[in-house]
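To: structure subgroup
Subject: Chain for Friday's discussion

All,

I'm putting the inputs and outputs inline so they're searchable in the archive.
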Amino acid sequence: MSLIPEELKRIMLENGRTNWELSAKDQDTVDYKPVVKLFNPCGAATWLLTELDPEDNDIAFGLCDLGMGSPELGPVRISELEEYTGPLSIGIERDLHFDPDKTLSEYAELARIHQQIVT
C-alpha cells in the first residue's frame, strides 16, 4: 500500500528538485511546509515530510520522531515505513486531516522544545 498518493509525491519531488538545485549552487534551500504527516497509530512515531530525493524517490526528507524524545531532521526510506507492521498488524498511516501552518524548521524548533512533534 502506498502511504503517499501520486499527487503529493509530485509536490514532494518538485520540492526535492528545487532544493537539490539550490544546494548545488551553494544557495539557501527553501524551508517548505510539510506536505504529509505520517504516524504510527499504535505508537508515538511521527514523520512530517517535505520532499523526495530526486535521485532516489524512495527517500524522503523531513522531521522524524520515533517517540523517544529526540525528534530530528533527516531522511527516511518510504518503503520501510510502508512495510512496517506493528501490533495488531497495523502499519504506518497518513494523517488525512493534517493541514500544516508552519514551515518544517518551525515544527523542528517546537519539537526540540517539547521533545516531540507538536502539530
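Points worth raising on Friday:
The mean pLDDT is 96.
Helices lie at 6-24, 78-83, 104-114.

D.
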